[in-house]
# Entry
Amino acid sequence: FFSTSHIAIEGTNDIDPKEMRAAIDDYLSFRLGFFFHADNYFLFPMTNVRDMLLEKYPIAHIEIQKSFPDLVTIRLEEKVSRLIYDNGSSYSYIDTSGSVLEHIRSVDTKEWDIRYEMVSSTNEFGEAVMTEQVLSKTHRPSKEALSELAQGVPLVYDSRHKKTDVRDSVLTSATIEGIFAWYAFWEQQESWSDLSYVVIDHELGDARLFLANGMYIECNLLDDRPAQMKRLAYIFDQKNIAAEQYIDVRYGERVFLK
# Structure
């Protein structure tokens, strides 16, 4: 009697709710004493189920509520467990180990700022000719163009232009940990311009954080992140830097603004 026959799971995105329900049912299959099962409404082990789910799944927050006579509602918020990886040609989802999960879409030509110059030369007849050559190419990832796919998901552009076949490893877990840490720090700063995307040229730690207002921050993803964040917060609190092009917080107590 009074078994929890209805378990509602709310808030899943990447987590499969059917798989989670199966894990809960398996956990509740043991008996409490001779007569009672763990799925008994009055004996339902909410704390133990919560701890089991937190250990098994990437969950940031979970709330379990019972409603008489047989309903248990599980509301959860998943941890961000993937990034959007941009190699200059396409956007892909990668997991926290750096492996490509799936392709999202190709990079639009409008997301490249290409500047040309006219170059004078002479053809085989001795005639002067003008040809157009590429002077510079700058990629500007568009988080807005990715719409809801990029909401709450870090976006990183890797200028090494690595290939992104599914299951290819493109970033180290240490680099990914650093990206997540900077995004988490930024989410706590309500008055700052949004962090749009991260640019890396290698995996020695150096990175550029591009903000929605056009500014960028030179930081290190691997070394002493709390100290860099503290220095950056101090600069934002003490100075009007709206007109500054970038801030560099990589060098100990020295902070460079330009």
The mean pLDDT is 86. DSSP finds four helices and 16 strands in the chain. Helices lie at 17-27, 46-56, 173-187, 225-238. The longest helix spans residues 173-187.
